[in-house]
Design brief:
Elements: E1 10-17, H1 21-32, E2 35-40, E3 49-56, E4 59-66, H2 72-80, E5 83-90, H3 94-103, E6 108-117, E7 120-128, E8 134-139, E9 152-153, E10 165-174, H4 180-191, E11 194-199, E12 210-217, E13 224-231, H5 238-246, E14 250-258, H6 261-270, H7 280-289, H8 299-305, E15 308-312, E16 315-321, E17 332-339, H9 346-362
Parallel strand pairs: 1-4, 5-8, 10-13, 14-17
Antiparallel strand pairs: 1-5, 2-3, 2-9, 3-4, 6-7, 7-8, 10-14, 11-12, 12-13, 15-16, 16-17
Bound molecules: fe (ii) ion.
Length: 366
């Protein structure tokens, strides 16, 4: 199997380029429950940027901002707003992963390089992906320090109040019209991924907009990457709105898994996270649409918090979507609790789409 040749152990980190890393870190700490564990910046010899490393259970985010107008990070931010620059993968051998990827047609972003300090060394290399996004291959098996050389542990008043977020379930990208197949082929050919699902515009459409989506995965569930492209509708689709404001293809949302979505969403709401609202009619319909004898959840509680549910032959899932987390209508999050289902809540796409469109209409972009 080709995927054996490109062993990916998981997500190493998701690095964002933002306008103000200090404030972004604070937001993810207070609203999403991440601990700020490390920092790199001018105080520690990194002259051109500030980076904050955030962790919660198996999730690691890095918030990075440039410091001067000529910084490529600042220019990236001017084009895209706050967004994901790097979806980095942990691999057993970064040099080998890079060599194989490039041999199979990936465009190099950065040749293999080594960073080291008294705690050991990290080998990295990066390839280009959709838009200006990159994938860095990271081998940190010989490193015992906090995150990477140049970073210092953050001294903290107290740990963040955790929200129960456990790991990254999937990372979704939006690509330009007509490019979904090419990016699906990229992950199939270069990473050895296979297609888990395919949704067409007949399955996911409202009166106004439609999208098509393919889900590529690594075969063992560690990495799942849905790829969306807009489809023709009467008005501008939410994918097109994203592309207009992000300025290119890029990461649309990340799904973060929890074992207790009711507790997680309750705490996140209290901390100020804003979620998409779901119409009451959705829950009336849900009562008859799903087989509740196999679902360990209280419909009233789901309705109170706006949590969606879906079911397939493997089990069920509970999910909810946040509003965009920055001024531009681009990146948002999904919180998900899975019970057997490996799906993406296709039964909810319609409800989600309609909710996003209500927000889009409020912004005058529909
Ligand atoms: Fe999702």
């Amino acid at each position: 199997m080709t995927s054996d040749l490109m062993p990916i152990l998981g997500y190493d980190a998701i690095e964002f380029y933002v306008g103000n890393a200090r404030q972004a870190a604070h937001y993810y700490r207070t609203a999403y429950g991440f601990d700020v564990v490390a920092y790199a910046g001018p105080e520690h010899g990194t002259r051109d940027r500030c980076s904050y490393v955030l962790e919660q259970n198996g999730i690691r985010f890095v918030m990075t901002a440039g410091l001067t107008a000529d910084s490529p990070i600042v220019q990236h931010h001017a084009r895209h707003g706050d967004g994901v620059k790097d979806v980095a993968f942990t691999v057993p051998d970064a040099e080998e992963a890079f060599r194989i990827a490039v041999e199979r047609g990936a465009e190099p972003h950065r040749e293999p390089y080594v960073v080291e300090d008294e705690h050991g060394k990290i080998v990295m290399a990066a390839i280009k992906a959709y838009g200006e996004t990159i994938h860095t291959f990271v081998d940190r098996s010989n490193y015992s320090g906090v995150y990477a050389p140049g970073y210092k542990p953050t001294k903290h008043q107290r740990p963040a109040d955790p929200m129960g977020l456990q790991f990254v379930d999937h990372v979704v990208c939006n690509v330009d019209l007509g490019e979904m197949d090419q990016w699906a082929a990229y992950y199939a050919n270069i990473m050895g991924f296979t297609q888990l699902h395919h949704f067409n515009d007949e399955q996911i459409a409202t009166e106004y907009t439609a999208l098509m989506s393919k889900v590529l995965w690594d075969g063992n569930g560690r990495i799942k990457l849905p790829i969306n492209e807009p489809a023709d509708g009467k008005k501008k689709s939410q994918i097109e709105e994203y592309l207009d404001f992000y300025g290119s293809a890029g990461v649309q949302h990340m799904a973060l898994a929890t074992d207790d979505i009711v507790a997680t969403v309750r705490r996140m709401r209290e901390a100020g996270v804003r979620f998409l609202t779901t119409p009451k009619t959705y829950y009336d319909d849900l009562r008859s649409r799903l087989d509740w004898s196999t679902i360990d959840a209280d419909l009233e509680e789901l309705a109170e918090l706006g949590i969606l549910a879906d079911q397939d032959d493997e089990g069920y899932l509970l999910q909810i979507f946040t509003k965009a987390v920055q001024d531009r209508p681009t990146v948002f999050y999904e919180i998900i609790e899975r019970h057997g289902s490996r799906g993406f809540g296709v039964g909810n796409f319609q409800a989600l789409f309609e909710a996003i469109e209500r927000d889009q209409a409020l912004r005058g972009n529909l």
